[in-house]
Amino acid sequence: MKASNPFWKDYLEGQMPPHLAAEIDAFESDLALRRQGKIDERVFAEIRLRRGVYGQRYDSGQRHDGRTTRTLAYPDGKPTKGPNTVWDAPGMQRIKIPFGGLNARQLEVIAELAEEYADGVAHVTTRQDFQLHFVHIDDTPTIMRRLAAVGITTREACGNTIRNVTACPLAGVCRDETFDVTPYAKMTAYYLLGHPECQDFGRKFKIAFSGCKENPCALVRMHDMGFIAAVRELDGALRRGFEVYVGGGLGTVPYQAKLFAEFLPVEELLPLAVAVARVYTKYGEKKNRNTARIKFLVNKLGIEEFKRLVEEERARLEPDPRWEEMLRQIPAYQEAPLKDAGLVEITAPRPAGFERWYRRNVHRQRQSGYAVVTIALPLGDITAWQLRRVADLARKYTRETVRTTVEQNLVLRWVSEADLPALYAELEAAQLAEPVAGTIADIVACPGTDTCKLGIASSRGLAAELRKRLLAQGAHENGGISNLHIKISGCFNSCGQHHVADIGFYGVSRNKNGYTVPHFQLLVGGQWEENAGAYGLAIGAVPAKRVPEALERITRRYLNERAFGESFGAFIKRIGKAECKKMIEDLTHVPPYEEDPSFYVDWSDARVFTIGDLGVGECAGEVVSPVDFQLAACEREAFEAQLLLEAGKVERAARAAYAAMMHGAQALLRFKLGSSPEEPEAVYQQFREHFYDTQLFFDPFAQGKFAHYYFAAHRRDGTAHDAESARQQIEEAQLFLEAAHSCYARMLAARAGK
Amino acid sequence: MPHEPEHVNLKIFACEPAPRDLSGAIPVFHRWIQESAASELLIDVADYRHLAAGPGVILVGFEANYSLDLAENRLGLLYNRKKPVLGPLAAKLRQAYEAAWSACRRLEEEPEFRGALRFNPHACEVIFNDRLLVPNTPETFEALRGELEAFFAGLWGSADFQLERAGEPRERLRVRVALQTASPEPS
Lengths: 754, 187
Fold this sequence. Notes:
The complex is a heterodimer of chains A (754) and B (187). Chain A has 23 helices and 24 strands. With 754 residues, chain A is α+β, with helices and mostly antiparallel strands. Chain A folds into 4 domains: 5-148, no CATH class; 174-332, Sulfite Reductase Hemoprotein, domain 1 (2-Layer Sandwich), CATH 3.30.413; 335-438, Sulfite Reductase Hemoprotein, domain 2 (Alpha-Beta Complex); 529-753, Four Helix Bundle (Hemerythrin (Met), subunit A), CATH 1.20.120.330. The longest helix of chain A is centred in the C-terminal third of the chain and has 31 residues, at 723-753. Chain A is globular. With 187 residues, chain B is α+β, with helices and mostly antiparallel strands. In chain B, 27% of the residues lie in helices and 29% in strands. Chain B has 3 helices and 8 strands. Chain B has helices at residues 25-35, 89-109, 138-156, and strands spanning 8-14, 42-48, 56-61, 64-69, 76-81, 119-128, 161-166, 173-179. Classes of the chains: A alpha+beta (754), B alpha+beta (187). Chain A binds chain B through residues 1-4, 7-8, 11, 57-58, 63, 65-67, 72-75, 88-90, 108, 112, 115-116, 119-121, 133-134, 136, 378-379, 381-383, 385-386, 388, 431, 450, 460-461, 464, 467-468, 604-607, and chain B through 3-4, 6-7, 26-27, 30-31, 33-34, 41, 43-55, 58, 60, 62, 65, 71, 82-84, 129-133, 170-172.
C-alpha cells in the first residue's frame, strides 16, 4: 500500500535484532504465499493473528449503511486474509508492550506509525498494548520492522498464544507492594514469547503480575494465570516468591481464578509457567473454542486435579539453562530517576488547575521526593503529536520511564516532586492534563462497533457521551462518586472488563416496535479492588440513549441514601438488586420510531440500527408479539435467580436460571412450530432438533455456544450447586436469553423477507 | 531527496469563526457513504471528537480519508491520500487539491453546516505522509519548493503567496501555503 514499503527493509538493516528481522521476513513471505493461494486462509489467519494483525469491522466486505447492506467494492477481493475477510479491507495492528514499559523513542515510532499507516491515533488497550486501526495488511511487515528497530515485537499479540504479560504500572514505586514485580513480568514475557510449549493452545492465555494483594492495578484474579508478590521466611532467610492463581477470566461468563499456590519461590516461576502450558496444551479443549480457555479446564478438572497434573509435568521437565540465566539478570533491573528528589514548594506560585490535577493524577512514590504522574487518555486514545510531547517530557523529567496502564492511560514514573508544577504546565499545553485519572470520568471502553467485528453496540460512543456529561456535571470532583469505576464493553465478550466495574455496561440489542434497538445491559456490584475481587451481575437492559439517565439515577440515589462511609458496592448490596432494577425499569421503554427516532440510532452514529434488515414499517405500531412477552418473562426469571443468589438460596437460584433458559427455548419453539412441549426433556429435545441441529440458534461468531449453556444446565438439573456454579449458570442464562432475542430477530427478518 | 514524493495530504483551512461542534459531520459523512459522494471507496466514519487538536471526524476511505481535522486547534478539511497517484508531483498535488476542495464545497452546502462553515481556498497545508520518501529537512523542502510554487501559482493565478516549512524534524514534512491577497477561487 505504502510506496516506501520496499525501501524500509534496507534502510533498517542492522538496526533490527536479527531474530526479529528474520521473523518479519518470514511473515512477509507468508503474505506472498497467501497471495499466491499457497497457504490456506484459515492457516494464514492464525499466522497473521500471531503477528498482531487483526481483523476489523466490515472486513467481510459488507456494511449496512443505514439504508441497506452494501458490498464494499475493494479492488483486491481475492485472496482473502482469512475466512470471510477481504484482503484490502482495513484491519488493526496490535503492538505488544510487555508490562506496559516504553521509552521515548518507542513512543515516537508509534506516533510515526499512527500517522503514516493508520488514522493518526494510537489506542491504549486494557492489556497495556497499543493498537493502530484502519491499517492495510500489506503495510504490516514495514510497521513491524520499524517497531523491531526500536525493540518492539508484535509477535503473539493476538491468536491462541500467550498474550501481553501485564503488570501493575506502579510496580517498583508503589508504597504497598511487597517487591517490584517488573523484572519478573519482563522475564516471563520474553521467556514464553515463541516458546515451543506455548504454540498449541486451544485459545489465548493471559498472565498478570501484581505487587500486592489489595490494590487492583493488575487485576490478577481475572487472568488465566496471575502472580502476586509474596515473601516468606525459608531456612532462616527471607525469600521472594508469588501467590499463584490460575483459571480466571472474563469473557462471556467470568470465572474467578483459583488459588494454585500460596507461595511459589521465584526460581520456580518459569518452570511452573511451562508446566501449566503443557497441561493446557495436553488437556485443554481444542475443537470448541467457546470452552477452550483454561478456566474451563480448571473448572472441569477441579483445582486439585489440575495442580496434580501440573506438578507431574513439572517433575518431567528437563532443566532449561535460561531459567537460571534470566533469574541472574533480575537484580540488574533497576529504574533510576533523572533528577534529584524534591518536594513541591508550598509557597511557590503554581499554575492554575495544578491542585486539582495534583490531587487526581499524581501518586507519590515509595521513594521519597518522587511521584508517578498519570496522563488520562480519553477512551485510551492519544494523537501522534501528543505522543511526541510525552516522549519529550519523558526525556526532560525522567529517564524515559513511561508505562501504559490497564485503565488505558499512560504514566510517567520517577518525576521529581519539585518538577510537578512545570510538568503540569507542559502537559496542560499538550492538552494532556485533564484531572480525571482513576475517577468516574476515566471510563474504560473496548473498541465496540467502532472497529470490532463482534461489537453489538457502540461502547466508545457511549463512553464519550458519558465522559462528556460527567465532566460537565463535575462528577469527577464529587467526593461521593468520583472514585467509582465505569467500564463498557460493546458485547458480552468483556474486553471492556465490565464485570469488574462498580457500574458496568455491555452492548446488546432488543427487538422493539419492529426495529432492532441498541441497548446496554447494566451491571452493578463488581469489584475493582482486591485484584478484581468480585464480579457484577446484570440488572437489566436499557436503551443505549437512556443509559446516561440510568447512570445519573443510580449515582444520585447512592449520593442521597448512602450511610456514612458506605461504599458503592456495600450500598448496592444493602438496597438489593431488585431495588436497583426498579430504579431503571421505566427507562427500558422505547418510544415508537415516529415519535423519537433517536432511540433507533446508536451513539456516535447516524445510521438507523439495522433498519434495513427488517424493512421500514414492516412491524409498525405498538404490536408486541407473544415471544417478546415470553422472553421478557424469562429475563425476569433470570433476574430473580440473581435475587435468590443474593439471598444465599443457591440451589433455587440455579434452578431459576435453568428455568429461564428452558422457558426461552419454549418461546422460540412456539414461534417456530406454533406450540411447545412442557416436559423439560421434550423441550430440550425439540430445541436441539429445531434450533441447534439446524444452526438456527447459532450466533454468527459464537456459533452454538449459548445453546450449550442451556444443554449443560438441563443435564445438570437436580444436581448440587455451590455459589460459584450458580452464579455462572445465571450468567449463562442471561447470555442464552440474549441469543434467544437475536435468534427471534433473525427469524422475524427472514419472515419479513419472504 | 532520496525518493519521489508520494502520499500527498492536503488540508484546506476553514475560515474563522469556524464551528466548534463537529457532531454534524457524523450524519454528513454517513450520507456521503450512502451516496458514494467521492470517487474513492468510502468505508466508515471514525469519531475522534474527544481528542484535543486531533483528527476530529474522519470519513475513512480505501484510497484516501477525508476528515474535519483539528490539528493544531485549527479546523480544516484534510484529504489524506493513502494509495499512490501516478505522475509527477504536480499531478499528485492537483489530485489532492481537487479532491479536498470538492469535499469542502460539498460540506459548505450540507444542511448541518450551511452558513456556519466556509473554507478558504487560498490557505492550505501540504503534508507528505511518508518520512522515508520525504523527510522533514530543509534540503527536502528546498528540493520541492520549485514544484510547489509552480503548482500554486498555476492554481491561483498569482505568485503572491508564501510557502513555509512547518513542524520539527520528527514530524512529516508540512508546507503551509497562503495567498497574500484575495483572488478568485481556484480554477
